[in-house]
Amino acid sequence: MNTFFTPPIRKPLRRTVLAALLLLAAGSQAAGPLYLNDKPGDPQPLRWDTTQGPIKVYTDVGVFTRKNDGSVFLSAEQANAVTAFALQQWSSVATSTWRAQTNPAQFTPFTAVPSIGRDVNDAASAQLVYGQYNQGGFYVIYDEDGRVLEDFFGVPRDQVLGIAMPEFAEDRDGDGYPETIVKATALMNGWMVSHENPPIGQRSAPPADVKGARYAGVFTHEFGHAINLSHSQVNGQLAFMSQPTYNRDLYPGVLGCVAPVHHWLYGPAASHIDPKQVETMFPFIDPHNVAKGRSIGQEMSTVDRADDIAAISNLYPTADYLTRSASIAGSLLLKDGKTGFSGINVVARNVRDPLGDAVSAMSGDQSQGKLGPDGRFRINNLKPGERYQLYIEEISGGGYPTRPAMLLSQAEYWNAGESHDPALDSPCKASAIEVQAGQVAQADIVFNGHRDGVQYDFIGGVFLSSLSLDGQRAGGGYGFGYPLYWDAKDGIQLFPDSLDLLASSRSNLSADGRKMLVEANFDGIVHTDPDGYSYTIKQMALWDFDTGQASPMGALSDACGLGGAAGVTSSYGFSMNATGTAAVGYSGHQNPDGSCVVHDWNTDLGLQVVPYRWTAEGGGQALKLDGLDLRGLPWMRADGISGDGRVVVGTANFDRAIAWVGDANPVDLTALTGAASAEVVNYDGSRVPLATAQGMVMWNALKGTGPDAFTPRSSPRYCTDMPFISWDGIDHCAVEGADWVEANAGRPPINISAISDDGRVVLARAGDFFTMFAGFMWVEDIGWIGLNDFLKKQGVVEAEKYGLENPIALSGKGQVLMGGMTGVQATWRIDLSTAYVCRAGQSLPTRFPDEFRDQIKAGARMGRCEKL
Fold first, then answer.
1. What is the dihedral of CA 711, 830, 724, 241, to 10 degrees?
2. pLDDT single digits (tens) 308-351
3. CA–CA separation, 822 vs 826, rounded Å?
4. Are 223 and 300 in contact (CB under 8 A)?
5. What is the pTM of this model?
6. DSSP 90
7. How many other CB atoms are found less than 10 A from the CB of residue 180?
8. Are 348 and 379 in contact (CB under 8 A)?
9. How far apart are the C-alpha atoms of 147 and 125, rounded to whole Å?
10. How far apart are CA 45 and CA 181, in angstroms?
């Protein structure tokens, strides 16, 4: 017998997930744990020890909420009654072993805890509870006026209803990783309780929540987090987010396969969801409104939905839980049929009662990204003998431990012939699974998508903006201007923070992908701004992947730092030639007296930023400005350089297009063509695409500036190539017609972003923020092709939801492009190497762009025959 007692190691949990319930916001991880430990290869969910009797409960002693006149609305005793009710809900689940004290007379007041000893009502007193073990157990804070939320947590009291989480866990099994929860804390925001009745006759405001019955839903939800339950999404998104007036219909199944179900208050009355169907752990709640005598907050206060019962029973199962109920398990896989994919909601709905009997699980929720790609899911608590349909959907929003992912293919049902092939596995093709007690039905779901032809792959939540010649490497940035690179073999790679690098404008790569344009500091001098923030001044630099070092490209003045979103730079890179021996951008510069040039807005003189070129042989220098009218121009930059380094193009003040050929004086392209900018140029400078009001003009810089150097090209058109939908949702093409739209709006403005080395493929974004954007690709001898229409006809079902409205980068061969959605830091890679055409009723694969173009010129149609 061991006569020595070693106290268990007790560790405070890192608050990596803020388990907060928002008034109208948060997210979901169905039936999953909130916290896992970090045990290598086998992370374990944290659990309370349920073998030692009910968990002790400690409660605050101050008033929970007051009326406007300062009188008490809900006392601590009344709040304790709500606490007891909520704890009773979780403690009464028959298939779970979790139990807590549920008699308010047994609760221990904070005044009886020596290390607390008072009402917790501000940041100072909150520190007596948070981060302190005290006596272990379950602690509930009644935040009367939201001061603890705002002063301790730093969150607005009018947006967060409560916060709860396990705080301390012990390692009791001796493996070095804590697995047993020993203390949790829940905070209830009393300031948000409806504490006043509306004036007589005013029906729009909710009545006072006299006993806190509506706010009880917040208590029950937050206590679920303290038990270590994450959020869930089964019916809640229908109750809170499905509103046809906002053009957002949501479905208890797959779009196009079932009818929509709408918000519990808004939309067609016949399709309102019954609030009793909403799961407690859905992260949206409305504890205020009452409709027809019913409150969704009160409905969510009870733990009687199959999903909530599954959540707590999965974590604290009774001995017969899994033998009495049935399960479905499997993996969500990419279209290769091998690679798992995390962060997608998998839902099982009873065919006979799809809203009343539904349980979900997020793929990968048992590893939370700790083990790499993981598409595994398991859905328990299904009724034996019943038939369930299984489908996948995106999480609607919020915060939770398994990062929600965008659905990289179609939402779809599982079927017995599950396949990646969209021709065989349509989204609505569903097979019901009849489940049996004590048995686990297996059902893997494979993303739909062709494995041949055009490939559409999501790279990640980053911004990739340049490609190597072969499209196998890319450069870009993430966050607040930090550089990164990607390659087809190893994926996304970050630079060490210790290098103190910033991304250049496009993080341009050399043709071989071995060099990259970045921003770096070389003098080591740390400056301090007037607000006390430290910074270094960075300049254009060339990163060499072979040596792992950055080489300076200089600036016209290291003293004239230019502040921006990415930091302070003395020169900033925009483009690089194919070999990495020349680069262009802009630089600050000095007056003869040594002061920095600053634009004078009174005289409209002073070019503060000038175009800058660096070469390996000659170093850095300003590009010539001779002959240009500089009045009204605060800045000018060089945007692009040809692959051979001979031709440079640039922009001034977003309304002037400039070019430089060799060492000659600049060319004012705006005066010649009306173009507002010049940003890209092909390898030898023979093709410079310019966006004008009339469409694209192709300039051959090698021919000079005579008429034969400029070739007008077509432009996308509203109503033919893209819709014209104004900010108020009116489709003017449908209402007024194409002629009216062109007469009043002209042609869509285009922003040209990339060109292939031979100049025969161009990428552009058309439209604006007031209407909409659309991505386009121009192919010589074919013209403008809408990218979303192209992807649809190529059978790329993965692109149905997100498409590609903002193409950014193109490989030198014109076969790989990257881009995403305007304003969203996310990148997709599209491999065009093999594109289909339809000829004589047969779908034929072709090499893009040459063979593809030849087939179209010969009469074939773009796309797979079955998609036309």
1. -170
2. 999 999 999 999 999 999 999 999 999 999 999 999 999 999 99
3. 9
4. no
5. 0.86
6. H
7. 18
8. yes
9. 11
10. 10
